[in-house]
Every structure is written in C-alpha cells, then in structure tokens.
Amino acid sequence: MNLSVFIIAIATLLILSVIIYLLTPRNYESAETVANSYDEWTEDGILEFYWGEHIHLGHYGSPPHNKEFLQAKEDFVHEMVKWGELDKLPQGTTVLDVGCGIGGSSRILAKDYGFAVTGVTISPQQVKRAQELTPEEVTADFKVDDALALSFPDNSFDVVWSIEAGPHMEDKAKYAQEMMRVLKPGGILVVADWNQRDDRQKPLNFWEKPLMRQLLDQWSHPAFSSIEGFSEQIEATGLVEGEVITADWTKETLPSWLDSIWQGVIRPQGMIKFGASGIIKSLREVPTLLLMRIGFGTGLCRFGMFRAVKSDSVNQLAEQSTANSLVR
Ligand SMILES: C[S@@+](CC[C@H](N)C(=O)[O-])C[C@H]1O[C@@H](n2cnc3c(N)ncnc32)[C@H](O)[C@@H]1O
After folding, report:
1. pTM
2. How much distance in Å is there from the Cα of 129 to the middle of ligand 1?
C-alpha cells in the first residue's frame, strides 16, 4: 500500500468513527451503568484483545520514550509498586485491589512480589474473567464488591491499591473513606487516577466544559476529582499519618492514548476476529481516545498518584476507648 492510499484509508476510518460516535450518544446514568458497561466490554473481548489484561494506561518512562503498548502497561504496575514503596514489603503482604478489572495488576502483585491479593470489582463478568486468567498457584482471589461499601471489616489489609477506578465513583469522599477504613494501621494506600485540573484555582473554560462532559459520559464516569481535591478527601478521613503524597504522571502516561488507536492499525486481525460489530465498536471508541489525548495533553486532565499511610494512633485510640469502657 503506498502512502497516499494509507492516508486516505485512515482518514476514511476516522470520519466513519466520528459518524458512529455521533449516531450513538451515551450518558452516564448510575453505578449500574458502570457495572453493565464493564460486563459488556468484558464479554465481547475487544477491550482485552487490544488492551490486554490491564485496563489502565501505560508508563512510558521519565521522560517518555517509545515502548511496546502492553509492556508499558506492565511497567506501569512495577513503577507504581516502586513509587508506593511496596517493593520493600515482605512476601505474604495482604493487598486489596479496588476496582481490579480482570486482575492484571493483582496477578503481577501476587506473582512478582509474593503478595496475597484480593481483587474487587463491581462487574460480575470481570470477576469471572479474572478467575479464568489466574492460575491456581497465584495467590489472587476475586469477588464482586462495591468500593463505596466494601464488605471487609476495618483494619483488614496491609496495602490498598487502586488504579483508574476513582472516576467511576459517585462519592469520592466515601471511596477514600472506605479504602482507608479497611487498611490496617501503618498500612499503605496507593492510588493512580484520572483527574481534572483543580477548577477552584482555574475554572474550566468554554471549550473545556463540553469536552469534560464528553469524557465523563463516554466511559461511565460521574466526575473526575482534582489531584488536590482527592488528596484533601483522603486527609479528611482523619486516618492518615503525616501527609498524603501526590505526583503527576501525565507525561509518563500520555503516549497511551494515541498508542491505543495505533493498536487498531497494526493489529487489524482484531477487526476480523470480532466481525462487523467488532469493527463498529472499535471505531466507536476512536473519537473518545482522541478527546482524552486532547484533555490530558492540554492540562484539562491530569494523571494523579496518591500515597498515604494509615495512622497507628487509630489503633491506639480504639484500644484506649476499649480500655476506658472496661474501667467504667
Ligand atoms: C478503568 S478500570 C481499571 C481496572 C483495573 N484497575 C486495571 O487497571 O486493569 C475501572 C475498574 O473500576 C471498577 N469499578 C468501578 N466502580 C466500582 C465500584 N463502585 N466498586 C468496585 N469497582 C468499581 C470497574 O468495574 C473496573 O474494574
């Protein structure tokens, strides 16, 4: 194929993708939409074919450089482990992976670091697929659970880990509260998330508002927090020792958006594997991927990292109050 034919073919597909996008509008309705969307995306297999076991962005290095798409996603998990200082923790450390998808991170944490991982997601189909993908010897279990009402008792896990689940949460303060609640005193919370610029400092302008609306509606998101706002919400749980540490990984993850589209070009066998409906569904996501690239590339969106340690004094306070009630 010569270059001009290739360019015409890409332009035609792009126009087609915009037409499909405009003809099939989506709206965020409720948490049920989130579960249904992930069930559907898991059942049809297209997302897994292109994104692999990790439904999150890749880490392309600092500064970013060319990398294989699926490798960048695996690297993201290892970079997050390092950044969260989880690589210093012993084998057998208990981890809760909140919004675990089909268990990509959970399996790496179990296999490469020897952690005992429990992954939870709101989507029953994801739990089923995560279980299918996890060999028996890997210490990772999966169950359906709601991040906003976790079924675990207080102080259950050494580490709570969550990647890109936050934008789906209707109540971000509750999301922070629940994750800190189930963490053991001295335990570590590490979260990676899509965020928006802090609009208290600089409100969204005339084109950013409709763009953000699209980013929310397309993939079942009620709202993005800001890095500053979510960090304050973690602190407001009253369970944090010292400060919440944050970082901005927008640059390191930015190539993921165009790389996602490029996967469709270099792996056209997906189009054949999933037939006409697969082609339509894949093309349907191209405008959203481009809008995400614009959002993250222009400073409207930011990729936030959060680390917090649960205060030991929580335990001391609880012990103190039990002791007091026994004395009385
Ligand atoms: C973008 S995916 C990320 C998946 C996984 N962390 C990964 O990186 O591969 C978002 C995940 O959050 C989950 N999720 C969304 N809302 C949830 C909720 N209220 N409770 C539990 N999981 C939720 C979705 O089911 C999905 O698994």
Report:
1. 0.92
2. 14
CA of 100 to the centre of ligand 1 (A): 6
pLDDT > 90: what percent of the chain?
76
Ligand 1 atom at shortest distance from the alpha carbon of 123: 25
As given in the structure block, the two tokens for residue 288 are: 């959203």
Q: Mean pLDDT across the stretch 115-144?
A: 98
The per-residue pLDDT for range 47-99, each reduced to its tens digit, is 999 999 999 999 999 999 999 999 999 999 999 999 999 999 999 999 999 99
pLDDT in tens, 248-258: 999 999 999 99
Minimal-distance CA residue to ligand 1 atom 14:
99
* Residues 21 and 284: beta-carbon distance below 8 Å: yes
**Closest to 157 measured CA to CA, from 127, 179, 134:** 179
The domains of the chain are located at 3-327
What pLDDT does 326 receive?
46
Question: Which protein residues are within 6 Å of ligand 1, measured from CB?
Answer: 31, 34, 38, 54-56, 99-101, 104-105, 120-123, 126, 146-148, 163-165, 168-169
Distance 162 CA to ligand 1 centre (A): 8
Given a cut of 90, whether residue 313 has pLDDT beyond it is no
Separation of 323 CA from ligand 1 center, angstroms?
A: 40
CB 172 within 8 A of CB 99: no
Domain 3-327, classified CATH 3.10.580.10, yes or no: no
Closest-CA residue, ligand 1 atom 7, reads 55
* φ/ψ (deg, to 5) at 238: 75, 10
Residue located via tokens 């970079």? 79
